[in-house]
Amino acid sequence: MKKTLIAHSPDADDIFMYYAIKFGWVDMEGVIFDNIAEDIQTLNEKALDGVYEIVAISFALYPHIRDDYALLKTAVSFGDGYGPKVIKRKGVTLKRNFKVALSGEHTTNAMLFRIAYPDARITYMNFLDIEQAVIEGKVDAGVLIHESILTYNSELEVEREMWDIWQELSGGGLPLPLGGMAISRSIPLNKSIAYEETLTKAVHIAREHKHKLSQMLLERSLVRIDAPTLDKYLELYANDDSIALNAMQYKAINKLFEIGYKSGFYNTPISVEDFMIPSEYKNLRNS
Question: Which residues form the signal peptide (predicted)?
């Protein structure tokens, strides 16, 4: 039996999309799965170093690792009318060169923020520390991600929605690509296809049994939020559109890559369709 580690973030949507495997509802022949949860910037950095075979990443990172990883079509998170939030203390007026805390250099929100606020003074910190850093005045503002977009302190207010920045930069009409899963190109293609099918099934089953799975996560203290907030959060980031990429999501990722290339974040333009697992290989191989 091969032991395969899946690296994902500790936020509720990643936990939810993986734990159908952890609880034994989904399996894969010849494979024992294990998992590790690390903050998204740590995962991005380890993907740059090729540490994990299967790893959650920010979509904005992907062009930097395209030679070593393929993108998976499942376990994706998009914003649709919502997303990360630029927050500040209530009543504060931000200067042009305000100091801001971001969750990591290679996150999608960081790239979009840097394009929208080229004069801001950026510091990077763990996403769990950003809210308190703003409250204590260590920074003027911060970009909240994950569950904190629903639970931030009443002393804070939203300066700007990342969704609005995305709409302006993209021209509108597309969901905001935030994160997905990447798989190492060192894995044989037929095995990669099997991994993708297993993970897709896990997300599908998680959605089918959302109430039961959510209850199990809450009972085991595997998520940081209460039941009503978890239910709302999962409908944002681990919904039916997370099971498999659709045509609009492909367009959105390509637009993100186009914006990043034109803004100097990438050294070449790419199309996401060229970097997915070619699942049709399975049918050709068996024909």
Answer: none
Q: List the CATH code of the domain at 2-78+177-286.
A: 3.40.190.10
CA distance 180 to 14: 9
Name which of 200, 231, 199, 202 is nearest 215 in CA terms.
231
CB 85 within 8 A of CB 212: no
pLDDT tens-digit profile of 9-35?
999 999 999 999 999 999 999 999 999
> Is residue 235 helix, strand or coil?
helix
Same fold for the domain at 2-78+177-286 and the one at 85-170?
Answer: yes
SS3 3: strand
Evaluate whether 182 touches 47 at the Cβ level (below 8 Å).
yes
Beta bridge partners of 6: 35, 54
Instruction: Classify domain 85-170 by CATH number.
Output: 3.40.190.10
Q: Where are the domains of the chain?
A: 2-78+177-286, 85-170
In terms of C-beta density within 10 A (0-12 exposed, 13-18 middle, 19 or more buried), how is residue 20 classed?
Answer: buried
**Is 186 in contact with 11 (CB distance < 8 Å)?**
no
Q: How confident is the model at residue 220 (pLDDT cuts 50, 70, 90)?
A: very high
HSE-CB for 285 with a 13 A CA cutoff: 9
